[in-house]
Amino acid sequence: MFKILLVCALVALVAANEVAEVKELVNDVQADGFVSKVVLDNGSSASATGDVHGNIDGVFEWVSPEGEHVRVSYKADENGYQPQSDLLPTPPPIPEAILKAIAYIQAHPSKE
């Protein structure tokens, strides 16, 4: 999972098309988990903590070429990778006709 974090941070750097210097770098690996953090002078950063069970909580952020601050937080555990961000796409709302059909099916279960 840490590899995904680093790849995302590197992609952000390449997209920005600039050379950034590392302001802060922490890689602390212990028997019961880890803490990792990188902060660049261009506003990009990434951090993550993990435990002995493979659960990871992290965040990465950068400034887009349009000047927008992008932040993605995530959790990775037995339920998989779960990113959260205002910029991630979301599904469209379920059409009213489908909601009515689902309600009807639930109210009238099959007799089989």
UniProtKB/TrEMBL annotation:
One of its GO terms (molecular function) is structural constituent of chitin-based larval cuticle. Pfam families: Chitin_bind_4 (PF00379). It comes from the Eukaryota. Residues 1-16 form the signal peptide. One of its GO terms (cellular component) is chitin-based extracellular matrix. Keywords: Cuticle, Signal. PANTHER family: CUTICLE PROTEIN, CUTICULAR PROTEIN 65AU, ISOFORM A-RELATED. This is Larval cuticle protein 4. The gene is Dyak\GE19198.
